[in-house]
Known about the structure:
664 residues
Amino acid sequence: xxxxxxxxxxxxxxxxxxxxxxxxxxxxxxxxxxxxxxxxxxxxxxxxxxxxxxxxxxxxxxxxxxxxxxxxxxxxxxxxxxxxxxxxxxxxxxxxxxxxxxxxxxxxxxxxxxxxxxxxxxxxxxxxxxxxxxxxxxxxxxxxxxxxxxxxxxxxxxxxxxxxxxxxxxxxxxxxxxxxxxxxxxxxxxxxxxxxxxxxxxxxxxxxxxxxxxxxxxxxxxxxxxxxxxxxxxxxxxxxxxxxxxxxxxxxxxxxxxxxxxxxxxxxxxxxxxxxxxxxxxxxxxxxxxxxxxxxxxxxxxxxxxxxxxxxxxxxxxxxxxxxxxxxxxxxxxxxxxxxxxxxxxxxxxxxxxxxxxxxxxxxxxxxxxxxxxxxxxxxxxxxxxxxxxxxxxxxxxxxxxxxxxxxxxxxxxxxxxxxxxxxxxxxxxxxxxxxxxxxxxxxxxxxxxxxxxxxxxxxxxxxxxxxxxxxxxxxxxxxxxxxxxxxxxxxxxxxxxxxxxxxxxxxxxxxxxxxxxxxxxxxxxxxxxxxxxxxxxxxxxxxxxxxxxxxxxxxxxxxxxxxxxxxxxxxxxxxxxxxxxxxxxxxxxxxxxxxxxxxxxxxxxxxxxxxxxxxxxxxxxxxxxxxxxxxxxxxxxxxxxxxxxxxxxxxxxxxxxxxxxxx
Length: 664
């Protein structure tokens, strides 16, 4: 089998070699044939190039002969037509057949150009005839264009427009087209939407009719702006310009916004190279007379509107604003040269806690209204929006600052600061009984209002001035306002805390009796703590809750810590006034324990620590005199209180009081 397969393989190899030789021979023959064919093609190409060169040369020669001939024929025809004008009778079919108006127009246009070069004295009559025929044909073409436009025949309009392109009346043709496009286009109340729809429709058609569509469309837009929009804007604004500033500003903002929106839509069309400048000039031409004094109208309206909002509020409260000021923000300018004695007393009382007569009774009214604030901020917000839209970019920061200044004057000065001044004047002296402390309500409302003011500052004013020198000026003005108000708030809170302490003093003076801590019958004491302690703790808890509702953030802890320290000092000084028996000392410890429990409501570590120390010291009241030194040195536990935790420095301060009261 192996030998048989081997023979078969050798046979196939021989056959393959034979076929390979035949194939190689065939390829060589084909290469030779291809080379011969390539040579023939090269020769044919050279021959074709030679013939083409001859043909081109012949064509140039024919053209050189034919062009003068055509010019001569054309000149002959023009001379023939010119002779007809000289004779005064037009016999040619091209002038008498209305269907050949296109050819007649071409001829008369050329004759009109020729007539311009002829001397007037010899050819005045023929020149006038040619001009008359020129005008007649021009009118016929425009009439034909108008008729075709009404029929909607775009192809005929395109033909006539192409003929009129070389006539002087081509611009009149464009005017007719623009006029007819607007017929029936402004039937609705929204002229801006109608204008956008019209321009969109014409934009699709104008490219099929005219060879310069961008010029025609730009002229249409210019016509719409200068006639339709300008008259519409004038009618809308002049009606309210002098009688109703609010409606005038609203209409101006609305019309300017809608006009710029229309301009943005028109930017999509091809209006030439600098369409942005073109549209901006059109808008400026409409509104320039209104924008020149816009900010003066805005400030005037904002001033009168803000004053009306405030006055309406004070009228609803049956309140006549006083001229109150403490030197921070002046509320009103006095016209009197001298202050009365009552005014002088009032100013001294505001700066101090001296009882120089009764305070102003406001019947608990804060004279702050969120409704008024929202109205003022809303008016200012709209003013900022109008300012952003209507002001020139170079004047925008300056105009925005003027609006911000008006907001500061009426919101911060005339409303918030006036309420703070009135609130300060309404705080009773610290020795008043049953005083109504409502200044914390003023603080709460002023804080809420200023948050709204700060939000508008960041949301609406900052974007307008962020990249201008006015930014630092606005920030400084805002900072000054905050600092001035904080001074008055601090003063009011301080005097309110003094009044709270004064109320506690009245309670302790009225309710605390000397026999509370030195009862006649020490074996028959049934109370856990004194009545004065109960009332003071109840009063303190109400005030703590009121402070938490009136303030936020770290201010709550700061004020509560101050109240807690003063409360501790009051109780400490109060306890120093009494002598104590053994049972009375126990009652004092119980009172201080209740005060300490009340102090826990403050949630201030320092206040709780002070009362813990006071409670620990009060345990000395029940220590026998012989054991006092041992207790102070920490060697003995006293009534389960850990006196050893009290610092020696505190004991050195309190010790004289302890010793003087241990002689019972």
